[in-house]
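Same chain as my last thread, 232 residues:
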Amino acid sequence: MTSDELLAEQIAYYRARAPEYDHWWERTAQYTLEPELHAQWDSDKRHLTALVDSWLAPFRGGRVLELACGTGIWTSRLAGQFGEVVAVDTAPEAIAIARAKLPRYANVRFVEADVFAWEADTDFDVVFFSFWVSHVPPDRFAAFWSLVGSALAPGGRAIFVDNKPRDGVWPPNLLETDGFMEVRTDLSSGDVHRIVKIYYEPAEIEERLASLDWQAQVTSTNRFFVAGFAER
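reply #2:
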């Protein structure tokens, strides 16, 4: 399977998963955890949010681009801190859910587009993406970060969060792996989809970005998440 074919199936998966995605973030329905693990999850989410807020702080009031915004689990938080938010996603179903979470007057413009092909027509102080860099095939990693760099204003910053490797919880229904491919059946429908999923260690992504002339600082929460920021 080529990376193009895998990405097409990944899009189909997230379009189908859009109505259920927030269950994963909140750990409800099929993503429910045992009480102790759920408490760890909530603690890690608080830690993650504090990290992101601290990295956003120097740019508050400016312009932010959110790539692969999904169902908007971060979009409203960005809107509360920035003067303008542009949120891009490939899945119209996800964008509809994200838009519905915001008040009418929110300073967010949603764009339905291929995240790998869309080009910004202005500069942004911050480019933000959550649970996305792990979905970028290896042969598109450099091009994706070139796109991120082209959207950043001088002195701007890319900020990202993702899954920590081998957290022992996600994904709940993994049939097989093949290189950077995962096969998931976690949808309530039971449908099977293949997606790109690469679990980066903090040092690994720092090294990859350094080879592309980015300076990155990447850390992790206690169990579930990695997070970092990168500057040219």
